[in-house]
Design brief:
Layout (H helix, E strand, L loop, with lengths): L3 H5 L11 H11 L5 H17 L2 H69 L1
Length: 124
Amino acid sequence: MESDEEIRRVPELGLELPGGGASTSGREAGAGAGGPERAQSSTAQASSRRRVRSPADKEHKRLKRLLRNRVSAQQARERKKAYLTDLEVKVKELEKKNSEMEERLSTLQNENQMLRQILKNTTL
């Protein structure tokens, strides 16, 4: 049966010690009831797990990271391009609306001026 510490431990993916996990828990149980020896044993095992990684595994991990980074960068560029395209469409819409409003303003100002002139002429 696994101890509470073994249950809480997060396994490192892709890394297994030779001999499987069952012998590891047996070795840890034989190390003592707990305390510093067990902590040192866990630390030694964790550091030995890191040493197990071969240069080929490191290269594979590096290449996977580079590929993820390239994909992420490409997605960021595509999002930026879509964002800029959207902004350009909005700019054109706003410019069109602005010119329509300027034209309407001019028309209303002319109409207002004519009405004032008519009002001025009728009062005289």
